[in-house]
Amino acid sequence: MTDRLFSYGSLMFPRVMRRVTGSRAHGRPAILEDHGRYRIRGQIYPGIVARQGEAVEGVLYCGISPAQWRRLDAFEGKSYRRQRVYLRGPGDATLSAWTYVIAGRHRCLLGRRSWSRSRFARRHLARFLASLA
Fold first, then answer.
1. Does 1 score more than 60 pLDDT?
2. Global pTM?
3. Homologous superfamily assigned to 5-131
4. Per-residue pLDDT, 93
5. CA distance 61 to 5
6. How far apart are CA 127 and CA 35, in angstroms?
């Protein structure tokens, strides 16, 4: 099993990742092709689904331990499932990683609006971090 996580929502922020996993993590930019990222209706965070021709920019974290995976699984909950994906990483290298995709029965929760990292940072990050304390 790979020890790499592709994050595309709140976990892209190192402070969120630290609160969730309990350790510092340093990520690198990566791109997941043929997937789209959309806001969950009524929430401030996104989900991804396979979408031909779209791409999701995110962060690749390496060295995720089994204990950290357990914490990540609990954080993501039942609305998401962990799935292996292939990314375009630094230097256009193709890398395998795990990510959390919206679970099939929960896809109806996805809205049509794309999710914005900068908007989340400006409007929601501080309150989101406080909710994790």
1. no
2. 0.93
3. Gamma-glutamyl cyclotransferase-like (3.10.490.10)
4. 84
5. 5
6. 28
